[in-house]
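chain below, 346 aa
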Amino acid sequence: MDSPFLHSSLQEYFGFSHFRSGQEQTIRQLLAAESSLAIFPTGSGKSLCYQLAALHLPHLTLVVSPLLALMKDQLDFLASRGIPAASLDSTLTGEQSKTVMSDSRAGKIKILMVSVERFKNERFRQFIESIPVSMLVVDEAHCISEWGHNFRPDYLKLPAYRSALNIPLVLLLTATATRKVKKDMAHKFGIAQEHIVQTGFYRPNLDLSIMPVSAVDKDAHLIDAIRQQTDQQKGGSGIVYVTLQHSAEQVAELLCRHQINAVAYHAGLLSERRQQIQADFMAGRAQVVVATIAFGMGIDKADIRFVIHYDLPKSIENYSQEIGRAGRDGAASHCITLANLDGLNT
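prediction:
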């Protein structure tokens, strides 16, 4: 497929005049029927690779996404671009699911989003077997590797499902992968080395700093850092990462006592509550979220001006993924780690 054609498609559907690094190569590979692995930094347009490719593939593109919130964001975006897309997820009524399935059968849908758990459902597998599928897309694909920092066992079965369902083409997307994880992912899906597209991780608008603090001074430093950020930015929001659930509650309370609009987020909260917090944060009603790593995957908010690690991050991959949520609008953003050795054991 020639370059002018892809560029006019990019302009027509997405309103962009040029591709970002790695996007065009990935799309060309897919349209040449080459399964690919794309490793791009957070916020650099991974989703566009499958969205644009899907428009030019003859049949359905099936996207496996790890989070409901992520799916909803993507579907809203696709709808705004006039691209026919739908999801099969737990929020749909039986009637709605039927409609999505019949629309997919009739070829009215180009992109169908599902959770990985959906593949356990035999009726779903029979449905996918009954319709032609051009491509399987696995978002946050590092979840498939036992060596990855977000390993999810259900992802391990995807290569077998792909074979059983005869899906000819695969695209794996992730923002972070060590060499070991990269080789593991590619091997599991039979992706050739030359079809791994990896751009650099450097993002010039992120300012990274490590602040050595003693445990007793940590809270004061945190409050200072947030005040400084919110004063400088005249607003803007931020995330404070902690390791433990009870720390999330304690730190959020501390910030509220100091007139900072903060809320705690962790896996111990009810799912409805977590969705509400996420919606409040996206809409700017909650300025600071104090969170464990349960928060963040799929948070695509443009104006996160600061990410503060109150506790040391779990690994370099986690750190890179967590700070990647800042500054997606390209404006200057600050990533601060409050470091002391107390957190090493945790």
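The radius of gyration is 21 Å. The chain has two domains: 3-198, 206-343.
thats it, cya
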